């Protein structure tokens, strides 16, 4: 991009008072005039003019072509959602979903693939980069159009480095430079977060935007949770907040010894209630199960061993969630993941334990619900986290507005 003197313009937009406020207002999807922007931001008209000029030059804001109620051009402005793309990947233990998103984080195209996360980061991320190229090719775009990338993973992520730290089910990933692997291909910010955090953010932003306190519990191959506190994703000091899957739980009646968890400890919640533990216990009962999906199919068939194990797991999950409810006092608890899809065997036990073990003040208005985004929760959430990272802090990128509009977002 060049400026009016024909010189190369800076690659980024530097800090100026009011710029982020105006951009955030327009990123919400509103189409507004300068007068309306000034009224909503409480900035002076001259400041609005200057900041809009900078955002227009950077390609982040475009004239909308809207008209006033009197039929005269109103000088309305909108966020340029089609000026580039985000690429995101939601990596699970046995499958991953890649998405091509517009600059609001809305999914335009996606690819689902089976994987084994224990194949290691070189193999898995190599496949991610290959499928990212496929998504861009299908959109007729190149790497230069990518303004941000994001990856969610089923393990603890250090907030500062974006690296996973001693992940129980991600063999070979400890300390691997995930951001560096992608930024070597795409010259843009790369965001990495644990899957439950991405799911929590996606659910809150998409389904519960007015809810300030939300707990997301993922019950899949592992057990994890993400916290929204006062409207913000709560990661804790280092990114370890919400890891309830490795809380110690008392041994249930009928269990001879505490099972060993993949983290190396014994008696963890996940060692009883995670999908991998359900597969382990069903195999011990002589069942031919190879995956968590196989276990879910047995549950839906009403197989008695699977049902018994699920009911025990639901009570243990409920007790762990109850402790979190007492500590955190969320308005909404969202249950997601492969096992949560077997709602009839999990939700009743979880609800009963939460209401029995949590304080009345903490449960008098609580809602315990299933995920509305379901299998898309992770990819939606990490896309929104990328958008937040790119457009709510400096330096802001400069983009070249596309002459053609991107395809319409897919519905969740």
From TrEMBL:
PROSITE patterns: ROK (PS01125)
Coiled-coil regions listed: none
Start and end residues of each HTH arsR-type domain: 20-61
Superkingdom per UniProt: Bacteria
One Pfam family hit: ROK
PANTHER family the record matches: GLUCOKINASE, ROK (REPRESSOR, ORF, KINASE) FAMILY
Homology family: Belongs to the ROK (NagC/XylR) family.
Protein name: ROK family protein
